[in-house]
């Protein structure tokens, strides 16, 4: 297992010298050619997609290339793997996955699309055979879940091949400047976690309902199944362009994050399915 000391963006890029990526402009052009798809979001998160893939592949060594992307939305992340020869299946809500732009890009890139109305009831995945995938991307999804996840994980456990990995990325609860450090809110006796303003003022999936620590993610998968083993657990630095010059006001915080991994803004975890002896053992109770 990798130590929890973390991985910065530059280290992640250097982990596999053979990995190359299109420029942000070249990548965005592939979406524009099929009608575009939230290019503003893509511009903000493109480096995250590249870093996540590099960290994952630094130890995966091409062991299997059948990939399931949960919450794929506009295929922003999925396409990187499809361009690299992975057999990609993308899952999301019908209104996202069946948009004309997404459907056109999927056809051109050989990506299979699956609609699923509600991951609490993963009906769209049940027709797929056991062990269909070597990799499951679960990136920037877990913090948005507002339902009990056991039925969903039972299905994903079934679909993942033995020896396959789940790649999880999510914001770090202890990130410098995050909710945990909001002293003014605490002193004002306004609680923690999602604010009342967010609950009332945003759509359900707009906010991060639950931000995790690495320790919580470990416990999460321990509770789900003894078949799951953590193979990688990292604190990851901000996904800034390393060539860009940081404003002076941001430099002390960035220096502190490099020195203290716990304060880094992002978590990266990889969970391996080591067998099917136990299945999902968690049983939700009222």
Structural notes for this entry:
Helix 2 crosses helix 3 (39-60). The protein has a seven-stranded mixed sheet, sandwiched between helices. Helix content is 34%, strand content 18%. The chain is an alpha/beta fold and 286 residues long.
Q: Provide the helix percentage.
A: 25-40%
**Which word captures the global form?**
globular
Helix-strand topology string:
HHHEHEHHEEHEHHHEHE
| Major sheet summary line | 7 strands, mixed
The secondary structure category is alpha/beta
Average the pLDDT over all residues and give the rounded result.
89
Residue windows where pLDDT falls under 50 for at least 5 positions = 1-17
User: End-to-end span in angstroms?
Assistant: 36 Å
The whole-angstrom Rg is 19 Å
The total strand number stands at: 7
Q: How many distinct helices? A: 11
Percent range for β-strand residues: 15-25%
Strand order in space, largest sheet: 3-2-1-4-5-7-6
């Amino acid at each position: 297992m990798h130590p929890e000391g973390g991985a910065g963006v530059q280290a992640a890029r250097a982990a596999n010298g053979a990995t190359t990526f299109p420029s942000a402009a070249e990548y965005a052009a592939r979406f524009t050619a099929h009608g575009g798809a939230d290019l503003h979001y893509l511009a903000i998160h493109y480096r995250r997609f590249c870093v996540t893939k590099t960290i994952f592949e630094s130890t995966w060594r091409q062991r299997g290339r059948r990939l399931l992307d949960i919450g794929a939305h506009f295929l922003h992340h999925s396409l990187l793997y499809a361009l690299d020869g992975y057999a990609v299946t993308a899952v999301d809500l019908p209104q996202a996955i069946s948009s004309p732009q997404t459907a056109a890009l999927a056809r051109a890139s050989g990506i299979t699309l699956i609609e699923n109305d509600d991951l609490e009831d993963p009906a769209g995945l049940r027709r797929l055979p056991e062990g269909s995938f070597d990799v499951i991307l679960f990136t920037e999804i877990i913090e948005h879940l507002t339902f009990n996840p056991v039925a969903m994980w039972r299905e994903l456990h079934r679909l993942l091949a033995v020896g396959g990995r789940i790649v999880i990325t999510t914001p770090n609860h202890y990130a410098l400047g995050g909710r945990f450090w909001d002293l003014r809110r605490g002193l004002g006796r306004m609680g923690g976690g999602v604010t009342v303003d967010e609950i009332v003022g945003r759509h359900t999936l707009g906010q991060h309902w639950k931000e995790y620590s690495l320790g919580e993610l470990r416990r999460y998968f321990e509770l789900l199944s003894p078949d799951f083993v953590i193979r990688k657990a990292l604190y990851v630095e901000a996904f800034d362009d390393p060539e860009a010059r940081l404003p002076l006001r941001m430099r002390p915080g960035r220096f502190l994050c490099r020195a203290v991994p716990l304060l880094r803004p992002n978590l990266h975890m990889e969970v391996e399915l080591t067998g099917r002896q136990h299945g999902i053992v968690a049983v939700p109770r009222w």
